[in-house]
Design brief:
Oligomer: single chain
Number of strands: 0
Structural class: mainly alpha
Shape: elongated
Distance between the termini: 25 Å
Order of helices and strands: HH
Helix content: over 70%
Largest sheet: none
Number of domains: 1
Number of helices: 2
Strand content: under 5%
Length: about 60
């Protein structure tokens, strides 16, 4: 499970960790019926953080 949050060098990726935490908060916000516009923006940004971490990992493998 720890490897999910690691980058190519084996260090923890802050983008992936914060993104995953924000996705969990987004799910909680859905059940609390928070404003849908704010919630959509929050979830998009959360998935963007996770996506950037994954894309960074893929790009480093392509460069090798």
């Amino acid at each position: 499970m720890k490897k999910i949050f690691q980058d190519v060098n084996g260090k923890l990726s802050s983008k992936r960790i914060i993104g995953a935490i924000c996705i969990c908060f987004g799910i909680i916000m859905m059940f609390c019926k928070i404003d849908s516009t704010a919630l959509n923006t929050f979830i998009i940004c959360s998935f963007g953080l996770v996506g950037l971490g994954v894309a960074e990992n893929i790009m480093s493998k392509i460069k090798k």
